[in-house]
Structure to design on (487 residues):
């Protein structure tokens, strides 16, 4: 496969990451979620209860703009693959210089002016789309960075845990301190204005902390990846495609739950103060799972643990949908169970995605984190778009009345469907896909060893070793008495 490449550097850095780099990486997702989770948790209720946009129009907006966001991810992935800075690498420049525009756009999204229904909708579409593009140009490099920091499964599990903790701490903080204030009659515009302005300062500091502590250490043969090479990396990457499909479906259920759980606690269980308890439980569950996740991965493997997390979320969704409104403890328990499964899957999925980078490199000789993470994020954004829209449409179908102290029985059914039934169905489908996921942890270790062997041969002057196609390298290794893992 002819393409230009830089001189191969066979030396490998130490397998273990420093605590500072792990914490620094987690800080990046905390910063990400100051924009992302704030929008996920509160944008629909802001549009319906503050800006005065109808639930149906808001649902269509979320669907359209989040699909646009998904394509923005692919655009961002190509830019990342083509970029390389000698001192900062491929990914950190985007994190450093894209942070402030992203956080300022988050302020703009929660500042819809009262300029008539059409004017408000146009403003909402433009600002939310701009936020999505800015988020892609920061998040795609951030997510790709993990695969470039280490190839060790245990260390990647630590990075996945760190980013989950970072995001969850922000989400829990929003749930504890902000969600209880979302009540009829409150001055919510002032609340969102000051909150998002504060996030500009905090988020910028977190992004810079990430940029200065989380550094690339994995060798790459090609610094500037062409479009042809990016496409070749995706073609035939069956593990990536299956993970994308499973993640798309799972994210549909997750976003439906995340978008509508405030309505579920407030309007079905009539227990909005429990939102803070959910947020505290999320922190406890996240730290607890983070402590045991590397051992779980070593013992059971990432795929099995992912499937277990999906089953747990499905059980929680069933409890939320079928429990009567007056049994608050049962519905609340279902929400906690669903959160446990959701957190476990979200921790594992980032490590699984990073593994597919090596699979693509093994097949093509080109390491292309940007386009692989972009495709993965594309499917996740699509799932988020569908899930958020389904939640809004469930509200509209049920006849949700914005600002009403009491919702009708049919409106409560719509809320329960969005919070419980959609996550239940989506979890089952996502699990079914992962039963056929082919890239086990053992196979990944073999692939990493094969890539290292190529570099060693290239460093020794073997003219055929670097950047081979799978078939050519297989033929070469067979002639040398070696073997490849079964594809």
């Amino acid at each position: 496969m002819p393409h230009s490449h830089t001189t191969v550097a066979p030396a490998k850095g130490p397998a273990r990451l420093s605590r500072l780099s792990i914490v620094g990486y987690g800080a990046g997702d905390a910063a990400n979620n100051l924009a992302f989770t704030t929008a996920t948790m509160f944008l629909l209720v802001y549009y319906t209860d503050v800006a005065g946009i109808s639930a149906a129009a808001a649902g269509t907006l979320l669907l359209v703009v989040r699909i646009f966001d998904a394509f923005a991810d692919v655009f961002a992935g190509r830019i990342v693959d083509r970029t390389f800075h000698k001192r900062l690498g491929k990914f950190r420049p985007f994190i450093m210089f894209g942070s402030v525009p992203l956080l300022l756009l988050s302020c703009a999204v929660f500042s819809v002016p009262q300029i008539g229904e059409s004017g408000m909708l146009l403003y909402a579409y433009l600002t939310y789309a701009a936020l999505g593009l800015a988020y892609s140009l920061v998040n795609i490099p951030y997510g790709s960075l993990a695969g470039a920091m280490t190839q060790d499964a245990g260390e990647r599990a630590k990075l996945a845990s760190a980013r989950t903790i970072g995001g969850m701490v922000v989400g829990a903080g929003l749930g504890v301190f902000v969600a209880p204030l979302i009540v009829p009659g409150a001055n919510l515009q002032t609340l969102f204005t000051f909150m998002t302005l504060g996030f500009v300062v905090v988020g910028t500091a977190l992004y810079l902390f990430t940029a200065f502590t989380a550094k690339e250490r994995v060798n790459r043969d090609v610094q500037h990846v062409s479009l042809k090479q990016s496409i070749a990396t995706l073609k035939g990457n069956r593990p990536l495609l299956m993970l994308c499909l499973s993640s798309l479906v799972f994210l549909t259920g997750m976003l439906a739950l995340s978008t509508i759980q405030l309505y579920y606690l407030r309007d079905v269980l009539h227990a909005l103060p429990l939102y803070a308890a959910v947020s505290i439980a999320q922190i406890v569950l996240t730290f607890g799972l983070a402590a045991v996740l590397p051992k779980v991965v070593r013992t059971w493997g990432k795929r099995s643990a992912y499937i277990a997390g999906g089953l747990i979320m499905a059980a929680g969704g069933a409890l939320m949908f079928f429990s009567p409104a007056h049994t608050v403890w049962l519905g609340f328990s279902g929400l906690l169970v669903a959160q446990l499964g959701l957190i476990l899957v979200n921790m594992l999925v980032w490590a699984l995605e990073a593994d597919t980078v090596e699979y693509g490199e093994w097949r093509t000789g080109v390491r292309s984190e940007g386009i692989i993470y972009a495709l993965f994020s594309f499917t996740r954004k699509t799932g988020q778009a569908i899930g958020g829209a389904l939640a809004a449409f469930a509200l509209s179908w049920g006849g949700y009345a914005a600002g009403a102290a009491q919702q009708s029985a049919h409106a409560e059914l719509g809320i329960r469907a969005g919070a419980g039934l959609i996550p239940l169905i989506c979890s089952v489908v996502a699990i079914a896909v992962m039963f056929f996921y082919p890239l086990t942890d053992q196979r990944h270790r073999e692939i990493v060893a094969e890539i290292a062997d190529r570099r060693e041969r290239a460093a020794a002057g073997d003219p055929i070793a670097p950047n081979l196609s799978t078939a050519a390298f297989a033929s070469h290794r067979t002639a040398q008495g070696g073997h490849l893992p079964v594809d």
